[in-house]
Specification:
Layout: E1 8-12, H1 20-30, E2 34-39, H2 42-54, E3 60-62, H3 68-82, E4 85-90, H4 109-130, E5 134-144, H5 156-176, E6 182-188, H6 202-212, H7 221-232, E7 243-246, H8 257-263
Parallel strand pairs: 1-2, 1-4, 2-3, 4-5, 5-6, 6-7
Helix pairs in contact: 1-7, 3-4, 4-5
The protein binds ligand 0WE.
Ligand 0WE binds at residues 93-95, 97, 100, 145, 152, 154-155, 158, 190, 195-196, 199, 205.
Amino acid sequence: MGLMSGKKGIIFGVSNQRGIGYAIAKALYDEGADIAFTYAGDVMKSRVTPLAESMSSRLITSCDVTSDADLDRVTAEFKDQYGVCDFIIHAVAFANRTDLEGDFSTVSRAGWNTAMDVSAYSFVAIANRFKPLLGEQASLVALSYLGGERSVPNYNIMGVAKAALEASVRYLAAEFGPLGARVNAISAGPVKTLAAKGISGFDILLKVNAARAPMKRNVTLTEVGNAGLYLCSDLASGVTGEVHHVDCGYHSIATSREDARILG
Ligand code: 0WE
């Protein structure tokens, strides 16, 4: 009996085999979960479909999370196909490339709104629509990053969006708790995924994180996937409103031994 056997849910934001969304989906699938997948656009359709089929998915559908009509349709499709929803994974984020470099204060109103809409509001909009479908011990999980709590060079508007996402996790946890549903976030350390491709300074960021983290390395996709499995499973039945760091301990240090040595 797998940890997720008999549980049905949906994942937003799988992009390819090297992403965090896929890593979580795989960890859930390997424990018996029945997973619906959404993709944004035709390029993603061709990438996500074989991955979803490899997990015998019963629903693979398009979803632009900035479209209320799409969210309504996807919710209806899920209800028709599965009836009850036991878990929701939100692994969606987007900011304009130009807003992920240079000075934070140059962000435009439109750039701010895009990042907040795709990366934070969408989680709340999905949670609201799926609320009537949630099973008795449902679990909602969003993906965050330390840049939502502290400034990280170039993360800029995405940091503001992750702060909003993490606050939304707490408000949703308060609202959904009485229904028996839990709402949490995973704050993953940096991982070299499609979402990180071409981001200026990302390789340096990976080096800095590995050098300073208590575990002296970066987190793996499998580790983030397993954390997603834990939060979705009944092993985490007492956990809600939490931002769970899966980052080899990087968030927990202020000054590393290396910093002290270099500057001392
Ligand atoms: O949340 C993220 C990245 C999300 C993301 C990625 C892109 C790349 C392509 C959002 N929007 C876009 N827009 C694009 O056009 N991460 C946690 C990964 C990440 O991104 C960074 C980081 C880290 C870490 C950007 C700057 C600095 C650090």
